[in-house]
């Protein structure tokens, strides 16, 4: 079927984004219509989807006609997007993620000093410690117990590390944060529940800011409060909370799913796992292979056209939004290669798109890489005989428009190695 791309328009979406559908199966269907296709999001909100690697790079790479600021989304400014629309939490907020140009640089600079290689490396001992504690908890269940590794290991670790960065040390507040966060990202709750969870999360963060204002420590929250009080008035109160929220949003679920997918990759490639444990392959390479095989972000929401723009043969009209199909784009660039987890062939992941590209390139990439390499090496060194508790074909994908991963990863840990 030959498609005339110039005739594609948001009035006639080629498909609907279906959170229950397997990510790569859906992507393959969309890509048959071209690299940039009109689709329908929840509640029949319309958007373009950039699905090929080239289209994704073009959109991400500081394109002069595209913006990250939702105030340029015509349907939103016309009030056509329902309150509590499931993706609004991902899209709104006065954070760097939604800012362009000088504003983006100002917001990013304030946080980036918490993410310098030196600061990230300094977190390594604490990451090792937290990982070790989680593994002790798992070991206590016995070698033949079945555990959902996503829930018991991959989920708590990144949140604990982000709490560490923020200086949020109270276990009750951490617990509340985790509950609200989970509800906010769920597609199985009502819009009202999602809004209540968003309010609850802001409450926890506002509480943290009040605590740090009274007693500053050497954490990110204290550093941001200092920026708030800076003589240039560089950060507003709302931007402060929005920045903490965006770090949580950007850094948690992504790392959880990266870890879960890579563990699955290794459990299904025992030859490569043995090579890692024998030191023939490096753990950071396993992290890259996992990110390429299954980008934790299925789709990135969104960019907005500042003026009519031609992208890969389609015309995106001023004010129309574009979703970036990261998981599809990451695999599409090696279209002829079978999609499989393979640490040995680094061509697959040299031009990794899982962390995005251009000015918004993931600020936490180094942290995510370090954390994942430590977590995977400690996990498999402690439990080298770990195996899937169900056949791979019975694993269920997570139901999400934004996230690509597994709903659960049931494993038998096997006898620990000490
Ligand atoms: C495997 C884990 C991760 C993946 C796959 C990932 C992916 C991404 C992607 C694709 C973007 C670009 C967004 C855009 O262009 O609109 C991004 C931005 C960002 N990420 Fe990550 N991320 C991960 C982990 C983290 C962590 C651990 C943190 C911090 C704790 C973090 C903080 C951020 C921030 C602050 C931004 C916004 C940067 C900006 O707008 O300039 N991420 N991430």
Summarize the structure.
One of its GO terms (molecular function) is heme binding. The protein is an alpha+beta fold and 418 residues long.
List strands and helices in order, with pairings:
Layout: E1 15-16, H1 23-31, E2 36-41, E3 45-50, H2 53-60, E4 66-67, H3 74-77, H4 88-91, H5 101-112, H6 117-122, H7 124-139, E5 146-148, H8 149-154, H9 156-166, H10 171-185, H11 191-214, H12 220-228, H13 237-268, H14 270-277, H15 283-293, E6 300-305, E7 309-311, E8 314-316, E9 321-324, H16 326-332, H17 365-382, E10 387-388, E11 410-412
Parallel strand pairs: 1-2, 3-9
Antiparallel strand pairs: 2-3, 4-6, 5-11, 6-9, 7-8, 10-11
H-E order: EHEEHEHHHHHEHHHHHHHHEEEEHHEE
Small-molecule components bound: protoporphyrin IX containing FE
**What helical percentage do the residues reach?**
40-55%
Number of domains: 1
CATH domain topology: Cytochrome p450
Structural class: alpha+beta
How large, in whole angstroms, is the Cα Rg? 21 Å
Judging from the principal axes of the Cα atoms, what is the shape? globular
**Relative strand content:** 5-15%
Low-confidence stretches: none
Largest sheet data: 6 strands, mixed
Mean pLDDT: 91
Work out the number of β strands. Answer: 11
First-last Cα distance = 59 Å
CATH superfamily: Cytochrome P450
- CATH level 1 name: Mainly Alpha
Strand line-up of the largest beta sheet = 1-2-3-9-6-4
Architecture (CATH level 2) name? Orthogonal Bundle
Helical stretch tally: 17
């Amino acid at each position: 079927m030959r498609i005339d791309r110039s005739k594609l328009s948001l009035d006639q979406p080629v498909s609907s984004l279906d959170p229950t559908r397997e990510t790569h199966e859906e992507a393959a269907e969309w890509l048959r219509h071209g690299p940039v296709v009109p689709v329908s999001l929840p509640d029949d909100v319309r958007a373009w989807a950039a699905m090929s690697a080239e289209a994704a790079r073009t959109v991400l790479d500081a394109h002069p006609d595209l913006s990250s600021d939702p105030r340029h989304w015509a349907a939103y400014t016309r009030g056509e997007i329902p309150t509590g629309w499931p993706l609004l939490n991902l899209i709104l907020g006065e954070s760097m993620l939604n800012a362009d140009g000088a504003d983006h640089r100002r917001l990013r600079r304030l946080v980036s000093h918490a993410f310098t290689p030196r600061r990230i490396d300094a977190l390594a001992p604490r990451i090792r410690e937290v990982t070790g504690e989680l593994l002790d908890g798992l070991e206590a269940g016995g070698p033949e117990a079945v555990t959902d590794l996503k829930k018991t290991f991959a989920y708590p670790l990144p949140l604990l590390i982000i709490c560490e960065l923020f200086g949020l040390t109270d276990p009750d507040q951490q617990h509340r944060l985790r509950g609200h966060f989970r509800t906010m990202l769920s597609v199985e709750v009502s819009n009202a529940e999602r809004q209540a969870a968003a309010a609850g999360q802001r409450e926890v963060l506002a509480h943290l800011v009040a605590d740090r204002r009274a007693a500053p420590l050497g954490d990110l929250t204290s550093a941001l409060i200092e920026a708030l009080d800076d003589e240039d008035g560089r950060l507003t109160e709302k931007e402060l909370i929005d920045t903490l929220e965006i770090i949580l949003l950007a850094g948690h679920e992504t790392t959880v799913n990266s870890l879960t997918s890579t563990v699955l990759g290794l459990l299904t490639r025992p030859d490569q796992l043995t090579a890692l444990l024998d030191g023939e392959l490096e753990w950071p390479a396993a992290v890259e292979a996992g990110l390429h095989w299954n980008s934790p972000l299925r789709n990135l929401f969104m960019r907005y056209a500042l003026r009519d723009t031609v992208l890969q043969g389609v015309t995106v009209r001023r004010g129309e939004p574009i979703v970036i199909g990261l998981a599809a784009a990451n695999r599409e660039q090696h279209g002829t290669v079978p999609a499989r987890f393979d640490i040995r062939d680094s061509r697959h992941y040299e031009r990794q798109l899982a962390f995005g590209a251009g000015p918004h390139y993931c600020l936490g990439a180094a942290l995510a890489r370090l954390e994942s390499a430590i977590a995977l090496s400690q996990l498999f060194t402690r439990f080298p005989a770990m195996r899937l508790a169900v056949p791979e074909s019975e694993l269920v994908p997570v139901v999400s428009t934004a996230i690509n991963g597994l709903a659960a990863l049931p494993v038998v840990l096997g006898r620990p190695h000490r």
